[in-house]
Design goal:
The chain is mainly α. It has a single domain, classed as Rhomboid-like (Rhomboid-like fold), CATH 1.20.1540.10. About 60% of the residues lie in helices and about 5% in strands. The chain is built from 10 helices and 4 strands. The protein has a 4-stranded mixed beta sheet with strand order 1-2-4-3, with no helix packed on it. α6 packs parallel to α9. The radius of gyration is 20 Å and the shape is globular.
Length: about 260
Amino acid sequence: MNYSSDPRQPSDPTGMATPTGQIGIPVKFTPPGKPPYVSYTLLGLTGLVFAAQLLVQTLTGTDWLAYYGMKVNPLIQAGEYWRLLTPVLLHGSLMHAAFNLYALYAFGPALETHYGHGRFLALYLLAAFTGNVTSYFMTTAPSLGASTALFGLVAAEGVFIYRNRAMFGMRAGRMLSQIGFVIAINLIFGFTPGARIDNWGHLGGLLGGLVVAWTAGPVWTLTRRETYLELKDSNGWRQMAVTALVIIILFSAAVIVRRSLP
């Protein structure tokens, strides 16, 4: 897409400020993840899984999907390692599912537009994985829910804005403050006595999102061409592949080592 780089004109559809000092020069930018079909697929899949949970529980009296998929430390210790990822698709109540689906809808599509489909999916899954592994190490309470991945998305949004703050202009500070407020409120609420919230999972997902976003998230730079400026991402799949491999190896090794201990 082409848009004016005149700072008096509206910002581009990505929400970024147009570059200053280049009045009259068009800027070429093609969002890598538009339309954001991975976000919508995750929304649909998560909703379908929760509907299946309700149906199975109604028919049998037991939520078998949660029974076989939620994070349960002794079962992970016994070798059921899929429980470090499958909780991201499961929820414990209608309110729980509705809140997380709304959060995914609010943050996912825009972030996927910046990241591209593959890197966004990798971010989502890695944040869920690091969140559940952290929960496994820090608390014995069973848990389930997409909030591990969602905290990773919120963290990645903050890193994206910070690293590209020159493009956002004066809005960057306000946007970062809003993201920090959202994270702080949710963490404080999670540590409230009596709250049945896996805050260790949230912190682990937050950490995973920060690491992935800082090492492999989009960093946009302007490159001058003959008749226009091109906005390009200086990171890509190579950085994401290395980051994903390191995270998976380190966290998996930690789980295996703990399992081998008495």
